[in-house]
Model the fold of this input.
Amino acid sequence: MNETNNTSDNANFEALLEQSLPNQKRLEPGQKIKAEVVSFSKEYVFIHLNGKSEGIIEKKEFLDDEENLRIKEGDFVEAHFIAAKNGELFFSTKIAQEEASLQMLENAYRASIPVEGKIEKEIKGGFEVSIGKHAAFCPFSQLGIAKEEQENIIGKVLTFKIITYKDGGRSLTLSHLAVLEEERKNALKELSKTLSVGQKVSVEVKSLHPFGAFVDLKGIKALLPISEIRFDRIDKIEDFLSPGEKIEVAILNLDWENDKISVSKKALLGDPWENLDDFAPESIHTGTITRIAGFGVFVRLKEGLEGLLHNSEIRKDERGNREVSLKKGDTIEVIIKSVDSYNKKIALKQGETKEEIENAKEIKKHQNVDDAYNPFASLLKK
Done:
């Protein structure tokens, strides 16, 4: 009896609505509208339809991950008509499971309206998904979730687009990937208003690869190339980053047309070639051999700063052989032969005589003493 009365009340309300809005056609389930947000209550968002008529959308549909409201009065939102209930017109940005009639699912397919579905089980080629009382299929290729992240996916409710609708709704194919791509496109559009090259941002490391790391930048995937993590060469990225780690980076490139964003960690470290006062010619330093080439060895003097110890500058014995065998990772004392800051090249030598080595040590010693006793030394160097 109550159900009959409610159905009658809703029909009467819709009839009255049509009389009050003579220029507006009857709203069909799933029909898409664009309307202005006029007010909020504790649970609902009210939108202006036409004349004095308003529609209702659940407020939770506009909350972000931190429960903050993403819209304000005066904003325009797109939503889909669900039903008239208790004298109110209900709308939604997606079709919920409990609202999913076959008519609404057909409308959702034709109008590309998002629908909610529950992943029931894994079957051949994908997953069986329930949308209310209706069964559907989501291929593995259309899930959009990495295999390693699918461990606990059974029982989860996700949002899908219906990509095929056949046999009167008895054959439905879904895509969660299409929803993710649309969300990414919208997020990129919003980010393009706030990001600029060189800007410092906080990101979370999501995954590691031989070429670099993918990081989460305000919900968007960005690439941190391995060459942009630090100035020194990196053999194993796992030694410097971990999934879940939060780091500061600078925006390196923004390619909105191709949806590509790259960031740099080393850009925030400062160029090691900007201050070379401690590496004056003839000063001696302890470094680490990083590479061995046919023409000499490369020596790391500090992060991002390497010098070349040419074969002709390596100390040899009376027979012309190297005094000691040099290999990667060895610690070695070298003398700065010359510095070419413009081309970012440092030439090194070992020194042929004890006198030459002692002179280099004296130069280094006096540099340290001058800096220690002169509080303005660092300022004068600039």
In short: The chain has four domains: 2-93, 98-181, 196-268, 277-381. Residues 83 and 90 are 5 Å apart (CA to CA).
